[in-house]
Design brief:
The chain has 14 helices and 5 strands. It has 279 residues and is mainly α. β2 and β3 form a beta hairpin.
């Protein structure tokens, strides 16, 4: 279901690659872009530079579900001028290109840390067995051994190394904090939810990316439980606050349709960029 990968978060490198795409004006000459990105990387091996460059471009191309908007996403990452929003946008793209990262966030972290329930598909008994029961009486944490077991059981994913790397990327993205548990027979790495929100810029891009092509505007409830919201592991209150900000700016509009309070998305891709990029 999910592929293994060996790359880190690469925040600065991805931002630099986005700048190269923005300067080029399009994604048309992919080989040329790969070569330009590779030249900017510091690895001594040409093979490694090419491999990482291709991964960076793969991730940036995943920043939009619509291929027509991918150049706009690269421009947004390169020119946003807000380091927090830039990191969130890059995380969104990374979590979509390397799907295990987003799956762990949505199916394991969000149910456990926000909903107060076992990860999706896991029982209380399995959580206690593989996560150690003592963790349920202190600050909520999920251990790496549990997450490795969960990936195997829930997704049929067997690479322990990739699960560990996925969690490291979630830490680098500011979604979780890692701690080393003492008192266990051997060192056990665990994760707790990091204090974080979601910038208005990243929220708007993700909102439009997920819902702009829907024939019926999404309800507020659906947006609060959207895939992107669960990928960022943020509660409905954060999403509701961002919706109200966006409404004040005229970037979304509320209406009652089909018996539900719905959110229409009136901006074109260019209008969205104009709204989000510094003038």
């Amino acid at each position: 279901m999910y592929a293994t990968f060996g790359q880190e978060f690469y925040l600065r490198e991805t931002a630099a690659a986005a700048g190269i795409i923005a300067q080029s004006g399009s994604w048309t000459h992919r080989d040329g872009l790969t070569a330009q990105v590779a030249q900017r990387l510091a690895y001594p091996s040409a093979t490694m530079r090419a491999r990482v460059a291709e991964k960076l471009l793969q991730r940036l191309s995943a920043g939009s579900r619509d291929s027509e908007r991918r150049f706009a996403f690269a421009r947004l990452v390169a020119e946003i001028g807000d380091s927090e929003a830039q990191r969130e946008l890059i995380y969104y793209a990374v979590s979509r290109a390397d799907g295990l990262i987003g799956a762990l966030a949505r199916d394991a972290l969000t149910p456990y840390f926000l909903d107060g329930q076992p990860p999706r598909g896991a029982t209380e008994e399995a959580l206690a067995k593989y996560n150690t029961g003592r963790l349920l009486t202190i600050e909520p944490m999920l251990t790496l051994p549990f997450l490795t077991w969960y990936a195997r059981e829930a997704f049929g994913f067997h690479s322990e190394r990739t699960v560990a790397l996925a969690m490291r990327i979630l830490r680098q993205a500011g979604i979780v904090l890692s701690v080393s548990l003492s008192g266990a027979p051997k060192r056990t790495l665990a994760y707790t939810l990091a204090p974080h929100g979601l910038s208005l810029a990243a929220f708007l891009w993700c909102l439009y990316d997920e819902f702009a092509c829907d024939s019926l505007p999404p309800s507020t409830d659906r947006i609060e439980q959207a895939a992107f919201a669960r990928t960022f592991v943020v509660p409905p209150a954060v999403i509701g606050a961002r919706l109200r900000e966006a409404e004040r700016e005229g970037w979304v509009q509320f209406a009652t349709l089909a018996g539900a309070r719905r959110v229409s998305l009136p901006l074109s891709t260019e209008q969205l960029l104009d709204a989000l990029l510094p003038q």
